[in-house]
Amino acid sequence: MKIAIATDTNSSMTQKQADEHGIYLLSMPVIIDGETYLEGLNIDNAQLYNAMKEHRDISSSQPSPGQLIEFWENILKDGYDQIVYIPMSSGLSNSCHNAIQFSMDYDGKIQVVDNHRISLTQEASVLSALLLAQQGLTAEEIKNYLEERAYQASIYITVDSMEYLKKGGRVTPAAAAFASVLNLKPILTIQGDKLDTYAKARGMKQAEEKMIEAIKQDRLTRFADVPDHQLRIETAGTFENEEKSEQWRQLVQSAFPSIPVSYVDLPCSIACHVGINAAGTAIMKREAL
To answer: 0.85 cut: is pTM over it?
Structure first.
């Protein structure tokens, strides 16, 4: 069986990276002042940040049924027998549930993986799926493998501004105003289905310290039995310049000197909700070696 691995740009994967690995990448929609853009095609992070600084009306969306079906049909036309499609977590968007419904018309040729991940942790699952396909597993076996290991990951993220959490309805206007006056930064976590509040901090420096402590605690508890070479600890953010992103990466790297730490820009569809200068970090077990 010839199996294709496919995902969306919520995985933080760029088209260049996808091409290098032979992975099919679906661009997620971003809506600015009522006009729809597709990430990586006609909008990038810098353009989105400029729109944010202008306080324009910004939101994310899920792919249309037509966009998703055309994406799958083109993959099958390339000569693949099956597709393993790994979208963002069903707990964060209806796009996964809708994809599962549409896949039922393909008699098992398309296996949609709901392994409750997004961004860096979603990307890790995509790369694992690719390796599993190379090892000869079927699409259904890959789906089951990833879903059984869905919760072997944690994400922590903090925002510099409450503006877009307020616009998205995740905090009330009163709570946002209160937090701004006191310079309170919410630390949010994803450990499976949904985005939850983990803690609050006074200023970004304290928020970053608390996120690192959270990763350390996960390392000592949830991942206590996992050797360093089977762990990934990563950083991400919506920083406007490389200096800030590198400072954040180095801060996390210094806390975990035995595990290489890299940095990626959060995708536009996530940046829509967290705003500019958000910082995030993740810890996960490598599902396939």
So the answer is: yes
Q: Tokens 């088209």 correspond to what residue? A: 15
Domain 3-27+63-148: top CATH class: alpha beta
Measured at the CA of 16, the angle between CA 12 and CA 22, to 5 degrees, comes to 95
Beta strand 58-60 with 279-285 is: unpaired
What is the SS3 assignment for 188-203?
EEECCCCEEEEEEEEH
Range(s) within the chain of domains with CATH label 3.40.50.10440: 3-27+63-148
Q: What is the pLDDT of residues 67-105, one digit of tens each?
A: 999 999 999 999 999 999 999 887 777 888 999 999 999
| Residue position matching structure tokens 């820009």 | 265
Instruction: Supply the angle between the helices 139-148 and 119-134 in degrees, to the nearest 10.
Output: 140
* Alpha-carbon gap, residue 116 to 216, rounded angstroms: 22
For the domain with range 153-285, which CATH number is right: 1.25.40.80, 3.30.1180.10, 3.40.50.300, 3.60.110.10? 3.30.1180.10
